# Entry
Amino acid sequence: MTPLQARSLIWVLALLPAIVAVVMLRESDLASPEAVLNYLGRLTGIAGLALMLAAAILSCRVPGFDRPFGGLTKLWWTHHQLATAAFLLLLAHPILLTLAAASVSLDAAVATLLPSGLDWALWTGWGALLLLMLFLGPGYRFFGEPDYQRWKRLHRLAAPAVVLALIHTLYLARTLPWLWEAVLWLGLAALAVVSILYRFSWSRRFGRRPYRVARVVRPANNVVELELEAEGPALTYEAGQFVYLTPRDPSLVAGRGEEHPYTLSSAPGETGLRIAIKALGDASRAIQDIAEGSRVQVEGPYGGFFPQRSSPDAPELWIAGGIGITPFLARARHLAEVGEPVDIVLIFCVQDEARALWLDEFRELATTLPGFSLHMHYFYENGPLDSTFVGERCPNVETRTAYICGPGPLLGLAQKVAHELNIPRSRIVTEEFDLL
Ligand SMILES: Cc1cc2nc3c(=O)[nH]c(=O)nc-3n(C[C@H](O)[C@H](O)[C@H](O)COP(=O)(O)OP(=O)(O)OC[C@H]3O[C@@H](n4cnc5c(N)ncnc54)[C@H](O)[C@@H]3O)c2cc1C
# Structure
């Protein structure tokens, strides 16, 4: 299944209750303008709640489930789109119902907007909408640069929001036959509950594997590469995948017991795991001082940057920026282990040579791995990356699959360059190191 097919399938499943509602449309629903408004109001409520439940189901984070979507970051994107669509539909829901009531009388409109006394059916609806605004708002850049930890804490409000929305729907549901309402809502709600229980209880207890920090290597002054030894069953993974790492070192000044996503920089054939971490914020800065011998937990693997089965002679163009080199490091180490000829051009973009991580190892690989070539792009010397720079160094560029990983601005630029060099969109693969 392609990522597009996987995403489309989720959208169709999420819209199923709304599709059923459209199929079961009654003549009376179209009898007058107010009936149409009322029907649209109910339809937006049904679609909004179903999309919200689908977004909750997608948050399950089961290793492997993200693969058909092109990796967990792409799956999060679908989750984000579902939640945004749900939010807009649920905002439209009371507005349309109020407009429908307004065509009957002003009193009816006011009663729809402002529930009186203990009208639980309406209060639960408003409560759900308010919570939805509170937990979704901070995730949009429109409201300022999002703070990840605050956003994560506020996201817990999603659970009561969904419960209130379900109560509201079960109180007022009258669009579909009773049995359909019960089966659709209870089915979707059960799936959402299982996903959330898996994510916040089961995976934390049974999905995290214990590892020990065997060695801390320092390839640069703000980067560490941790070498981890399994203290139980070892993780199996593919080159380029990532894990959630939870350090347990009691001496850490920040980020202890906090999970953060990091790409595995080791080759899958190695005995232990290697994880390279650049200091980019509180937790990643504190981990630079993690003690050797301390314990960490590893959950995963996630991601699908490189294909599961790739033909060794399928030509590739790799564009990496800064710490975005880690998935390529893992894959290059893996290819060196396998020892088969490849056709890969790596363009490694950094400010200057002093910031080129693992440069000696890549230079060595360029001489020992047949078909692998390395080209450094120094921003201070070469300016922003462009198609002339890449085109001159990469033969048959239009026949290649481009894999791009790096900070946001480089990601956008490299995609543009690949596009200008006639690499079709279907062969441009990106990995984002940003989840918001
Ligand atoms: C798929 C993926 C692979 C990554 N691989 C690497 C790698 O190999 N090496 C490396 O140095 N960095 C990697 N990162 C980035 C790394 O996760 C962040 O730098 C780190 O989480 C920053 O946390 P902080 O508290 O130090 O910084 P903050 O300033 O708190 O966060 C900076 C940004 O990091 C992200 N982030 C922060 N906390 C979390 C969290 N708990 N879960 C998810 N995202 C979070 C958010 O997008 C946030 O905006 C990867 C990120 C992703 C999504």
In short: The chain has three domains: 3-176, 209-302, 316-431. Residues 107 and 281 are 54 Å apart (CA to CA). The domain at 209-302 is CATH 2.40.30.10 (Elongation Factor Tu (Ef-tu); domain 3). Residues 72-102 form the longest helix (31 residues).
